[in-house]
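Bench notes, afternoon.
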Amino acid sequence: MSVMLARMTFPSFQRSVVMALVALMLLFASSVRSNFVYDDDPFQPVTQDETVSVGGTVTLTCSVKENDNSSLQWSNTAQQTLYFGEKRALRDNRIQLVKSTGTELIITISEVQLSDDGEYTCSIFTMPVRTARATVTVLGVPGKPVITGFEDAVHEGSKVTLTCTSSGSKPPAKLHWYRDQEELQGRPDIVESNPDEPTYTVTSELMLTVTRDDNDALIACAVDHPSIANGDKKTEQPLNVLFSPSVWIQAENDLPREGEKFYLQCVGNGNPEPTAYTWDKKDGLLSLQVKVDGAFLRFESLNKSDDGIYMCYADNGIGRGDGSFPLSVQDSDLFGFTSPPPLLSSSLAFTSPPHPFIFTSAESQTLPPPTSSASVPTPSVSFTFPPSPPTSPTLSHSPETPTASLSNALFPDLLPSSVPTRMPPSPHFSTPATPSSVTQLNGVHTFTGNSSRTHAFNTPQ
């Protein structure tokens, strides 16, 4: 009917155009219908598109809902038959049969190449023949990026242009710049097609003004492409930035004391490392006792005259940096005693050098208060002193034997209620002697025994 209408309405040229359009519409409808689910035709084949990277393996599946004993067939982009049912038609060992039934035909293609990209056809030879198409997209894997532009060291404050290039990608890859973990913004990518294959070369540029903080920083160029996992293709290169030293001075300790040895160390951080050091004293001259030893300034014996601000200058050939240190020498007697500390004075007086003695009764630990006329009861006390040459009265302190201290009657809290007894060494010990008399003279109880020495104890008045 449509053909008759076209003949009646349009001239011959126009009729041919209309018929071509109708044929194209019918072909498009058939092609679109083939990739849908079964619709109302149980014999219509169903396929799906696949994407694979170069070198990978792609699986092609064709299926029908019903079959009237007709065979399924896969054909390549050049319409060459690959498999007809279970039978291999093309001698290509990369193509293998996975499954063949009346309703399904599955094959694989391994070691995929860029030339395998295109449309594959599945057909079932019913009346009429029904077909379905599957598009295989082969991804060109981009090569590892290459960074150029900073093969040599650059000076602090200089500008540097870095270039990153990656080739072999399909579709074109995208390039990203990083400094350590921070992403940097480069210029837009430049994409160029390769003349002998359907792949692309991508180039990106990054401009940097470098500082000393950029020294040894890792500049990375990473490729973003669907054929690779994120970060799989990345190239890193450290920056080499030349800069003058930053200088500071470290002291041997925080409390330099008079008379001690001491040193200051000059530390310079630069690229390259400093090799020359100079020392100076601000508003003065270095003492003759001070020795310059490269990065060290050594004091043989600190003196108060060494107080002042010391300067260090470090040079690495790129530039010179300086640092300062205020030195304040402390007096040595602020940190320790120059003589032994004074002992607590005692009311126990000796007319000759003291020797160890011991009280042998509890009564002797406390003297009774003085009275005006009554005599003091005689305590049972034993003294033994070896003979010694007369000397001036001295109070000594021995680390091995107890030193006579204040009377327990005067300071009852200083001694326990009972004093453990320890006898003097046996060569000096003899039978206890009882003092012949006890008198009170101006508040002092005096004991006299067989020894020629006299000992007095003060008592409170």
